[in-house]
Each structure stands twice: as C-alpha cells, then as structure tokens.
Amino acid sequence: MHSDTERFTAVVAAQPTHPCPPAGRSAAGHVPGGTFGAGRYRLLHCCGGTPAMEFWHGRDVVTGHDVGLTVLDGHVRGLVDVDEVFARTVWMFGVHSPALARIVDMVDTGAGGVVVAEWQSSCSLAAAASVLSSRSEAARAARPLTEAMRVAHRAGDVLGLETPDRLRIGARGELYLAFPGALPSADRFADVRGLAAALRGLVTGGGGVTAPVW
C-alpha cells in the first residue's frame, strides 16, 4: 500500500498548484475570480458540473484556505430548492471520514446557494486512472466511499453521487466526495450508479467519467 500511496502522491504533486483559469465563462456563466458569500469565497477553477450545479476549486479569502464549492445557480433555483439541498446535506457537518470532504459552510446567496467543503491535495479521476493498473486497485481506492455510502443509506441519508464529477482521488489513493450537496432528486440508486460510473472511469482510464479540468 505504501507504493500505491507514493504513486498517487506523485500524480497529485504533478498538478499545478495554481492552475491557469480556462478562457471564457462556465456553462452557468461563472468565471474564475468571481465570489460568493459577500466576497468570502473566490472561484479558482471549474472541476465539472451538471445542469443543476457546478463544482469549483475555490479559496476562502478570510482564512486563505482552499475550499471545494458546490454552486447552485440563480437560474436553476426554480428547478432546485436550495433549502432542501441544505437540509439533505446538513447531516454531513461534523462527519469525519476519508471518504467525505468536511463541510465548513453553506451559503444562501439569495439567487442560489453554495456548499463549502474543505479542500485536500487531490487529482481528477482521469489523472488517477493513469496510475491504477487493475480493477482490484480501483476497488481498494473506493472502499472508504463504499463504506460511507452503506452507513449513510442505513441511516436513511444519501451522499448525492449522481455524477463522478463530484469525486476526486486524494494523495493517499482514496476516492472521496469532494463536492457535497445532495439534490432533492438524490436517492440510493443514484448513489450506486454514480459510484459504479466512477469505478468504470478509473478502470478504463476515464471512460464514462466527465473528466474535470485542472
């Protein structure tokens, strides 16, 4: 396992510390440098998304710490109840698990909302797939997240894994939920399908995964 950790650490270390922002706007109209929460949380780089939300690597300008931002957009508010997203996500506060990024804040922007989570050194699933050599390695990487999903489902909760874009691989080689924020439509079946899609992407080198842009 030590050699596995070294391989993932090398992949994570190879990623740029301050990636160059992509040109233009995201699908929802956001740009690197934009802010939320009265200017506290700054967008750095878009890591993917769905029609209902976007996932951003960001920074807390007050603490100087990097954060993961799950952004619910204003023009999506009619489709997604932000208050319900918060209500379905609040149980993750205080949960300490290598499979779940710890939530530090949830901000109602008036036109939408943002779930703020701790950021850790990590890489996209597509980048991680380059150092995974077998299905057993992919399964081992997903073991903590699989257990977290089992515990959540037993308690009547869901993780919200409807898209692999929510997931990243940490430096220790563990698949984890980097961008929490369960949609009203999230259910156990979506969790299972999302985890299966992530595993397929890891095994096939990114196939089936919407690869985040660094």
Structure description:
- The protein is of the alpha+beta class and 214 residues long.
- The protein folds into 2 domains: 16-118, Phosphorylase Kinase, domain 1 (2-Layer Sandwich); 122-204, Transferase(Phosphotransferase) domain 1 (Transferase(Phosphotransferase), domain 1).
- It is 29% helix and 22% strand.
- The protein contains 5 helices and 9 strands; from the N terminus they run αββββαβββααββα.
- The strands form 2 sheets. The chain has a 6-stranded antiparallel β-sheet, covered by helices on one side. Strands 7-8-9 form a 3-stranded antiparallel β-sheet.
- The protein is globular, with a radius of gyration of 16 Å.
- Residues 7-14, 16-23 and 207-214 have low confidence and may be disordered.
Please tag this protein with its features:
214 residues; alpha+beta; Phosphorylase Kinase, domain 1; 6-stranded antiparallel β-sheet; 3-stranded antiparallel β-sheet; 5 helices; 9 strands; 29% helix; globular; disordered C terminus
Quick synopsis:
The protein has 214 residues and is of the alpha+beta class. The chain has helices at residues 2-14, 82-89, 125-129, 135-154, 188-204, and strands at 35-36, 41-49, 53-60, 66-72, 103-108, 113-118, 122-123, 167-170, 175-177. It has two domains: 16-118, 2-Layer Sandwich (Phosphorylase Kinase, domain 1); 122-204, Transferase(Phosphotransferase) domain 1 (Transferase(Phosphotransferase), domain 1, Orthogonal Bundle), CATH 1.10.510.
